[in-house]
Write a structure and sequence with these properties.
Helix content is about 40%, strand content about 15%. The chain contains ten helices and ten strands.
Length: about 300
């Protein structure tokens, strides 16, 4: 897949997609899919940001079939309401990109349902969303679910005794846990799709080290991480480049379910889409099944 770019995306005409996150990678995913002719719903919690994203996409891609829908991944009620709206208005869905996220807030925060913010938003919110949309995805044509992990997952561990970091909150290890959980979820979804005949390909991707608002929005512009993002900008690839592994996973005919993609250069920090190295702990199928069961219990969403 030498230097795969957005120009290699096959026509998405007749295909429908939902992308979570209105800025950064989510915006780039939506723009590329809309340019390729797909019907895209960009979902996020801020209607003003959503409207601005849709307007910019329509400006950049005249005739784009794109719209915004409100979705707060930090609220299971919002996720359920979103799922119900979509199930009531359509019969199928071809692509779900679980992209939105929060990163390393300095103090422990909670979702509307009392989960630690990073684990609850990055992982549990997307777990619940995928479950809510499963009936539509099962009727989709060559349906795919692409879930975003991170190179931070390499250092992640699932602490089943303290999933919500109530005993010990450290921003980066908790973020790493959330992104490892996303990766394990992607693999487990593929196993269950195969076992249950769901017809859904589940693929994971990560963007390397990309220039998005994630670092500025979380620890703050003047934190060490925020200043690195500002002043060491040359180490970060643009969001449009960081989106390529996700878009490859979402659209390439060469992709198989159960795969993991990231950039091909500099320790997977930047470059063009290639198969990513899977952290050994992400391959623990027993832990992944346990995490799945716990997640169903916590979210009340059964697949």
């Amino acid at each position: 897949m030498a230097k795969w770019t957005v120009s290699d995306i096959p026509s998405q005409k007749g295909r429908s997609a939902i992308v979570t996150g209105t800025g950064g990678l989510g915006f780039e995913d939506t723009l590329a899919l809309a340019r390729a002719g797909g019907e895209v719903i960009i979902a996020g919690r801020n209607p003003e940001k959503g409207a601005a994203a849709v307007a910019k996409i329509r400006n950049d891609a005249p005739g784009a079939n794109v719209r915004f829908e409100r979705l707060d991944l930090a609220s299971l009620k919002s996720v359920a309401d979103f799922g119900e709206r979509l199930r009531n208005e359509r019969d199928s869905l071809d692509l779900l990109i679980n992209n939105a996220g929060v990163m390393v807030p300095p103090r422990r925060q909670e979702t509307a349902d009392g989960f630690e913010l990073q684990f609850g938003t990055n992982y549990l919110g997307h777990f619940a969303l995928t479950g809510q949309l499963l009936p539509l995805l099962r009727k989709g044509k060559n349906a795919r679910v692409v879930t975003l992990s991170s190179i931070a997952a390499r250092n992640g561990a699932i602490d089943f005794d303290d999933l919500n970091a109530e005993k010990n909150y450290r921003p980066m290890p908790v973020y790493s846990q959330s992104k490892l959980a996303c990766l394990m979820f992607s693999f487990e979804l593929q196993r269950r799709s195969e076992a249950g005949g769901w017809g859904i390909a589940s693929i994971a991707a990560h963007p390397g080290v990309s220039r998005t608002d994630l670092l500025h929005n979380a620890p703050g512009r003047w934190s060490a991480a925020g200043m690195a993002r500002t002043f060491l900008w040359f180490l970060f690839q643009p969001a449009s480049q960081g989106a390529l592994p996700t878009l490859f996973a979402a659209t390439s005919p060469d992709v198989k379910g159960g795969a993991y993609y990231g950039p091909d250069g500099l320790s997977e920090g930047r470059g063009y889409p290639a198969e990513a190295k899977i952290p050994p702990q992400a391959l623990d199928a027993t832990a992944a099944a346990r995490l799945w069961d716990v997640s169903q219990h916590l979210t009340g969403v059964a697949f």
